[in-house]
Amino acid sequence: ATFKPLHLIQCKATLLITGGLCSSPVDASDQLVNLLPFHLLVSRLQHQSLLRYCTLPSTHPLTHFIHHVASHHWLCTYNSPLHLLFDAFPLSPKDIETITVAHFSPSWSPSFTVQIAKDSKSAITQDTADSSDIIIYTDGSGYKNKIGASAVLYCRGRRMDSLWYQLGQDSSYIMYNAESLGLLLGAQLLSLQ
């Protein structure tokens, strides 16, 4: 019932913005103003709001209700708008992965130094100039849809040992997992020495 008046408001707004006449095609005016057609705009807003509901933290008061509605579609006699959203979009709170973000204050500075060479020649020069007794190289990366990591230990310029591990498909793991695993492999090599 409210869809048609809102659609008419968007039509009038696009005509005012473009300076078009009443007989101007609304679809062309929407493209000129870079607006989605109204039904797609409403659908996008519905999807975004449902996605926000699905990503609520477990401490939020609505989380239990959201999980209940997501797992029990159309069991009620009178379905809520939330039931309609879950029916329209195939989202489930259980299928959404939560990635925790590392929080640091703006004044934070690391207790170690990071040196990144500008090119491969300067990297080789820095590496040969390093006189440390133990050097460990770690890397995590993706190749052919697989995610893995490796670590190599050098002691006084001689390669002593190496470890590598393949986590699995890139659909299940992200690069942060691989980089973290590379650091763990490096720590394991160091503990074995």
Characterize the structure shown.
The chain has 7 helices and 3 strands. Strands 1-2-3 form a 3-stranded antiparallel beta sheet, covered by helices on one side. A hairpin with a 2-residue loop joins strand 2 (146-155) and strand 3. The termini are far apart. It is an alpha+beta fold and 193 residues long.
The global form is elongated
**In angstroms, what is the radius of gyration?**
27 Å
Name the helicity range.
40-55%
The count of β-strands is: 3
SSE map:
Layout lengths: L2 H16 L7 H8 L4 H17 L8 H9 L9 H8 L31 H10 L4 E10 L2 E10 L2 E12 L5 H18 L1
Antiparallel strand pairs: 1-2, 2-3
List keywords for this structure.
alpha+beta; 193 residues; 3-stranded antiparallel sheet; 3 strands
Quick take:
This protein has 193 residues and is of the alpha+beta class. 45% of the residues lie in helices and 17% in strands. The radius of gyration is 27 Å and the shape is elongated.
